[in-house]
Amino acid sequence: MPIEYRIVHQRRLVLAKGHGTLTDQGIFGYQRDVWSLPEVGGYDELVDMTQVEDIALPSTERVRALASLSADMDAPSRTSRFAIVAPSEFAFGLGRLYEILRTHDDRRTKVVRVFRSLDEAKAFLDIRGTLP
Predict the structure, then answer these.
(1) How many CB atoms lie within 10 A of CB 132?
(2) For 15-31, what is each residue's pLDDT tens digit?
(3) Domains (ranges, CATH) in the chain?
(4) Which residue, 15, 98, 11, is CA-closest to 55?
(5) How many Cβ atoms are within 10 Å of 119's Cβ, its own excluded?
(6) Which residue from 46, 49, 20 is spatially nearest to 131, judged by alpha carbons?
């Protein structure tokens, strides 16, 4: 699977890393697998795209579909934060598109931001020191 993740319950945080080629199926699979778990509702999220070499999305419409699905899966009763680390130009651009779409969806309860570095993302999520 191109996206590996772990859940840090004591921090109410999902940590995910993309590797190699990120596909449509991998991205949507991650979203459904993780965020359908009732125990992670309202958790913060950090997705690190540093090791992603290629992103194979068939169209920007799929980014729109992912943003919509994600907003549907947000915990309605709790605001959380989602940081995307995307150092490459293409990943950063797609991340910003996703951020904009999520920001303008009235159903969303996650605040999404895209960063170039892990340190910036950690600061946004208020994570000090090394990742748990």
Answers:
(1) 10
(2) 999 999 999 899 999 99
(3) 3-124 (3.30.750.24)
(4) 98
(5) 11
(6) 46
How many angstroms separate the CA atoms of 115 and 32, rounded? Answer: 23
Distance CA 56, CA 112 (A): 22
Strands 13-23, 80-85: parallel, antiparallel or unpaired by DSSP? unpaired
The angle at the Cα of 69, spanning 63 to 73, to the nearest 5 degrees, equals: 140
Q: Specify the pTM.
A: 0.94
Between 24-35 and 60-73, two packed helices, what is the crossing angle to 10 degrees? 0
Residue 83 and residue 110: Cα distance in Å, rounded?
10
Backbone phi and psi for residue 108, each to the nearest 5 degrees, phi listed first: -70, 145
Tokens of 98: 């996703």
